[in-house]
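Ticket #4471: complex job returned nothing on first submit. Input attached below:
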Amino acid sequence: MTTFTIIGTGTMANAIGGVLAEGGSSVSYVAKDQVGEAPLAGDVVVLAVPFPAVDSILAAYGDAFDGKVVVDITNPLDFETFDSLVVPAGSSATAEIQVKIPHARVLKAFNTTFAATLASKKVGDAPTTVLVAGDSSDAKSALIAAIEAGGVGAIDAGSLARAHELEAIGFAQLTLAVSEKLPWTGGFAVAR
Ligand SMILES: NC(=O)c1ccc[n+]([C@@H]2O[C@H](COP(=O)([O-])OP(=O)(O)OC[C@H]3O[C@@H](n4cnc5c(N)ncnc54)[C@H](OP(=O)(O)O)[C@@H]3O)[C@@H](O)[C@H]2O)c1
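Support reply: We reran it on our side without changes. The output follows.
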């Protein structure tokens, strides 16, 4: 059984935690006012927070991230303009996080699936599929197995470098939903 600590108690934290718990994983949560104080009990830590909150969380826990699998779910948009990402061109939030916690194995996941589609397990009429990127095959396999056990599809989308493309997909999907061209219960699905 994989043990998860989810930092954040918002929409995505609950949707992700629901899937993982349904699959039999142990899930604990760290609320905003517990950051740095509540232990990172899980082998896998999910950062279910806005991208601008990540730095302060990394600083609060420091080397407590060593040896952990860390899942970055963020879409690092400029939410003032909805017209760009705030990470360096060609890079990704995930790559930036990996540099800051080099002794953790950082994965990108869940950024291309709206919360409602994790809860319903459907994107429109299609099954929901989580795309997972990172450099550790073992970490990706464990996360994918935990997601699938919860009844949601998951695919290994490649190395940490693919986080850049996943963030581009998340960016495009988010702008479509914000402009009401896609419902929050829909989005991009994987047909296979
Ligand atoms: N919603 C989606 O469908 C969706 C889909 C894909 C990816 N994402 C990504 O998922 C992440 C979470 O989104 P969400 O929709 O779940 O947002 P949300 O409902 O607003 O939840 C955000 C959570 O982060 C906490 N938080 C905010 N600032 C923090 C800080 N400085 N330190 C610690 N915790 C902090 C919030 O605590 P308080 O409530 O106490 O402020 C809340 O628990 C974002 O990066 C977003 O881009 C969202």
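Residues 3-178 form a domain with the Rossmann fold fold (CATH 3.40.50.720). Closing as resolved unless it happens again.
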